[in-house]
Specification:
CATH topology: Tachylectin-2, Chain A
Shape: globular
Structural class: mainly beta
Order of helices and strands: HEEEEEEEEEHEEEEEEEEEEEEEE
Number of domains: 1
Oligomer: single chain
Length: 334
């Protein structure tokens, strides 16, 4: 009888330990300790999250819980890699599901090539790819916006938009065609933020559009000054204001995340993800002060909202360890 009782207790203990959040309810930053700058994320029909980051051949990672990530593949083969901008890198991808296809907007640029850089489009039937390149959407010198990189797709009420731009050129929005693969004829670009921002992302909550962006230097190792900032507006096309009513068009903002002793150059956020407990989560990159040679690694933070509806992160800096996202009873398909 005693042996039977002990066996049953052991079985119950093993069962509890196998339930996410029971044995290990915290995570540690970085959640991906390899190079993964400018992250973009989507939850696919199979229930998994897919994350893509800047690289010569952008990598695709897969996770069921936002914390544990595994490498899947590269978005492009070497032969299928976009080539419309000579000698350019592929930067700041943005993954979306549009009309039954996974659509990847991306930047092609070389350092200093602020007039010839631009935005391209690739498509796939699967979130992990491989992606088929459709070529450029536009170049800086064609759209009339210096440093045209960092695309972000936004859709509302059947209308599709692209937000893009970077340091020196400002943040802009323009309407796309219904397929999301070309500019709508007659659409006019509108500037919504000043020349000190890049990596823009629009998030709608309540009656406000929140424009997340990054300010400062992204890529100087532990000397990077990147920080994640925000403004909000009651209209997609602005005017975006900070907490003091000052315009993002005038390069004003509210701070969301900045560096601390462990992480430097915190910026270029992903889309916000909501877990099963209703909490909001956001990814971004930073240099790990103890190992900057790795490059910009992947960090995760919970976004909270104050009584006035402004987003914030505890202490305005990344946590080294924190309670992990909650996902219950999720079924995954192969």
């Amino acid at each position: 009888m005693f042996l039977l009782l002990m066996r049953n207790l052991f079985f119950i203990l093993m069962l509890l330990l196998s339930v996410p959040g029971i044995a290990d309810d915290t995570y540690t930053n970085p959640v991906l300790a390899s190079k993964a700058p400018d992250p973009t994320i989507i939850r696919a029909a199979d229930g998994y999250f897919y994350l893509i980051a800047t690289d010569n051949l952008p990598p695709v990672y897969k996770s069921s819980d936002l914390v544990n990530w595994s490498f899947v593949r590269r978005t492009f083969s070497q032969d299928g890699r976009p080539s419309w901008e000579p000698n350019a890198g592929i930067w700041a991808p943005d993954i979306n599901y549009i009309n039954g296809k996974y659509v990847l907007y991306y930047s092609m640029s070389v350092w200093g090539g602020v007039e010839t850089c631009g935005i391209g489009i690739a498509v796939s039937d699967k979130p992990e790819g491989p992606y088929t390149d459709l070529g450029k959407l536009f170049r800086s010198n064609e759209i009339g916006v210096t440093n045209s990189i960092d695309p972000n797709y936004y859709e509302e009420n059947g209308k599709k938009y692209l937000i893009w731009g970077s340091l020196g050129g400002g943040i802009w929005v323009i309407e796309l065609n219904d397929d999301g693969l070309s500019l709508k004829e007659g659409s006019e670009k509108v500037q919504i933020a000043g020349t000190s921002f890049e990596g823009a992302y629009i998030h709608k909550r309540g009656g406000y559009y929140y424009l997340f962006a990054s300010a400062g230097s992204c890529c100087n190792g532990v000397n990077s000054t990147y920080r994640l900032v925000v403004g909000r507006s009651t209209s997609l096309k602005g005017t975006y204001l900070n907490k003091d009513g000052q315009r993002m068009l005038d390069n004003k903002y509210a701070l969301v995340i900045t560096s601390n002793t462990q992480f430097k150059g915190t910026g270029h956020c992903s889309e916000i993800v909501t877990d099963d407990a209703g909490s909001n989560w956001i990814f971004y990159h930073a240099y790990q002060a103890s190992n900057p040679e790795t490059g910009r690694v992947l960090l995760l933070s919970r976004i909270k909202w104050d009584e006035a509806g402004w987003p914030y992160v505890d202490n305005n800096t990344p946590a080294l360890s924190a309670p992990k996202p909650v996902f219950r009873y999720t079924c995954f398909s192969k």
